[in-house]
Design a protein that fits this description.
about 575 residues, alpha/beta, Rossmann fold, Alpha-Beta Plaits, TIM Barrel, five-stranded parallel sheet, elongated, disordered N terminus, binds ligand C2E, binds calcium ion
């Protein structure tokens, strides 16, 4: 049996225009689908709206009218809890007025003259649908603190500007506060709110001078969709000066990312770009402004490609593990002591890709676990293989990513790996970058403790690139400090760098851990390190990272030397 659909009463639409011809032509377009009522000026419109407050689905509002114009109507509507819920589409021939109307709460606009009935019907239908949906969700349109748009509304309006205003060149700007949580922690939440409010005020002042819309989200991030500006340095400066004025001692630093308009990039994606640019400026107080450019676009395309290619690469065995030797330099001649496993990606089309190009990318989205597990397994297998063939064990260290540390199965998996390959724990060393130690200290320290209790040795990688303080260091579980390469680079030329290295060596002695110097390329660097009692050295001076087969030759040569020495 076919059930007939219940007849619905047509929805009620109010058309407000002082010109009869306009009212009539809209009436003709709408009357097949809607019940239409009319008003000739703003005052009448408000009366009709109040009379039909709960039954009215939409108002089509002319802006220029006698008695009371459309802007005044919008102002009244905005302040009226009940009327606010009724969506208003403004009718206008003046583009700049549209944006103002939008800012005053209009849902959309229709341009005069009314020459495309289908477009008008579609827009009317869409807005009614949207507003019915919205009333259900009843999301807040404005952020209470700054009176900027909340995020959903912001993007809804931004899309509308993008879709219907092909003549407007709109850039995406993201403004962020450095270390906002610290500002809050040091100065209290009220002060933090003052900071946010002040930025909100200044953004609204800026939007009063140009055209655009703005929102705040995730506490301290501001998104501005505004007419293209010739340059953004002065805009950022203007915000920064407000901050300095609020409290010169609070050390509030702003950073800004800008993605210039692109006709094929929708607002959501344009803001992804602006945010990426803004993130690149993070912590850079010298250059707090970053504009999304061609390089970043290429980088973005490469990233997307690499993400897609990861799975086939694992299956197709495109990843290879290279080994770079570490030498004990406190004996003469230096003696091979261990190696570091470093991943390489031989991409069938892009060629050799450096880990610097894909490790941070995969770290950012959790895929790094796949790569790391592969390297660990490969390295463990290799240690066992060399052990059985050469009769001696060369320990190999593998890199852990910060996300590995948060994997609850990490300890068990590493233990399993060691057991399956018949190794002892100290044969598979683990390198973890210094900044991972400080990220989320308690949990990280806990996992490292458990690993060390099993018998794994932990090397703190890139030491000196993070911000561990001395008193933190003395509580950190670690066996080896791996000095960041930047300290070695100019050690021969720079007295300061030499002092820093010597300081790090002192710290290591105090902590009773050994030190690896990485990136050692010259005889001169080696001499300084040996003099300073650095234990181990890794770098091109001894060897670049090598494929397993080549590393084996190095291993054989070293064994040969040992044999000659002992005879
Ligand atoms: P890292 O752990 O600090 O590794 C040392 C990097 O320095 C390696 O770069 C190595 O090839 C390079 N290097 C060694 N000696 C010298 C030298 O004398 N001069 C110069 N200029 N460079 C030298 P690579 O292999 O490109 O790796 C870069 C980074 O990628 C590594 O830095 C590490 O953070 C990451 N990485 C590499 N393999 C893995 C892996 O399997 N898992 C994870 N999570 N990260 C990895
Ligand atoms: Ca490393
Ligand atoms: Ca390192």
């Amino acid at each position: 049996m076919i059930q007939s659909k219940q007849m619905q009463r047509p929805k009620l639409v109010l058309v407000v225009d002082d010109h009869e011809i306009n009212r009539d032509s809209l009436g003709v377009i709408l009357e097949d689908d809607y019940e239409v009522i009319y008003a000739e000026n703003g005052k009448e419109a408000l009366e009709e709206m109040r009379a039909h407050a709960t039954g009215l689905s939409l108002v089509l509002l002319d802006l220029m009218m006698p008695v009371m114009n459309g802007f005044e109507v919008l102002e009244h509507v905005r302040q009226d809890e009940q009327l606010k819920a009724i969506p208003v589409i403004v009718l206008t021939a003046d583009k700049s007025a549209e944006l103002q109307a939008l800012q005053m709460g209009a849902a959309d606009f229709i341009t005069k003259p009314f020459d495309m009935p289908e477009v008008i019907l579609a827009r009317v239908g869409r807005i009614i649908e949207l507003s019915e949906g919205r009333q259900l969700i009843s999301a807040a349109e404005h952020d209470k603190l700054t009176m900027l748009y909340s995020r959903n509304f912001f993007f809804e309006y931004a899309n509308r500007l993008y879709n219907y205003h092909n003549d407007m060149i709109l850039d995406a700007v993201v403004l962020n506060i450095e270390q906002f949580h610290t500002i809050n922690a040091l100065n209290g939440r009220d002060f933090g709110d003052d900071v946010l409010r002040l930025i909100g005020n200044e953004i609204r002042a800026f939007l009063g001078e140009t055209q655009g819309i703005a929102s705040r989200f995730e506490a301290d991030s501001f998104e501005i969709y505004c007419l293209h500006q010739a340059e953004y340095r002065s805009l950022l400066k203007r915000f920064q000066e407000k901050m300095d004025g609020l409290s010169p001692n609070a050390n509030i630093h702003l950073r800004m990312g800008v993605a210039p308009f692109h006709e094929e990039v929708e607002p959501v994606f344009l803001f992804d770009r602006a945010r990426a640019a803004c993130n690149m400026a993070r912590g850079d107080y010298q250059n707090p402004l970053m504009i999304y450019d061609e390089d970043m676009r290429l980088r973005e395309m490469l990233d997307r490609r690499l993400l897609n290619d990861l799975r086939p690469a694992v299956e197709g065995r495109q990843f290879q593990v290279y080994y770079q030797p570490k030498y004990n330099i406190q004996v003469d001649p230096p003696r091979l002591s261990s190696a570091e496993a470093l991943i390489r990606w031989k991409h069938p089309e892009l060629g050799m890709i450096s880990p610097g190009d894909f490790i941070p990318l995969f770290e950012g989205n959790g895929l790094i676990g796949v790569v790391d597990s592969f390297v660990w397994e490969e390295a463990a297998r290799q240690i066992a293989n060399w052990k059985s063939r050469f009769g001696f064990t060369l320990p190999v260290s593998v890199n852990l990513s910060r996300s590995d540390v948060f994997d609850p199965t990490l300890v068990d998996r590493l233990v399993q790996l060691v057991e399956d390959n018949g190794l002892s724990y100290k044969d598979l060393k683990l390198e973890l970058t210094e900044s991972a130690y400080t990220d989320n200290a308690r949990q990280v320290l806990d996992v490292i403790d458990r690993l060390r209790r099993k018998g794994f040795e932990i090397e703190m990688d890139d030491f000196g690139s993070g911000y561990s303080s001395l008193n933190m260091l003395s509580d950190m579980p670690l066996d080896v400090l791996k000095m960041d390469m930047k300290f070695i680079r100019n050690i021969e030329q720079s007295e300061t760098d030499r002092r820093l290295v010597s300081l790090i060596l002192d710290i290591a002695r105090y902590l009773e851990v050994s030190v690896v110097a990485e990136g050692v390329e010259t005889e001169g660097q080696l001499a300084i390190l040996r003099e300073g009692k650095c234990d181990l050295v890794q770098g091109y001076y001894f060897s670049r990272p090598l494929p397993a087969a080549d590393f084996e030759k190095l291993l054989e040569r070293e064994l040969e030397k040992e044999r000659n020495r002992s005879i």
